[in-house]
Amino acid sequence: MWQPSIFIFLILLIVSINHLPLARARGQWCVVSPSATDAQMQANIDWLCGHGHVDCIPIKPGGPCFQPDNLRSHVSFVMNQYDQYNGKTEKACYFSNTGIFVFKDPSYGHCEYDY
What we know:
mainly alpha, X8 domain-containing protein
């Protein structure tokens, strides 16, 4: 039989592992595929932002994700928002075959991607 102190140690070890930064850093993010055209990326932004599917304020001037001011950065941020809020599924990241999953956090500066 286990001694109570070993049992308590194991419980505390399991709980503490969930609080390590390394454990929290694991995730999956939906971003635009390198092969997506400008027209496809613009269509994704128009659908996501024009229909209120996600909050697009972060990619507007003055927002934390406005810089760099380019279509690829902006669309990746809003595609990830949509994917995160819709279950992180392949379907939620499909975007007419322009979305891909990455496993390295694309956040930068004050622009934080949800995961």
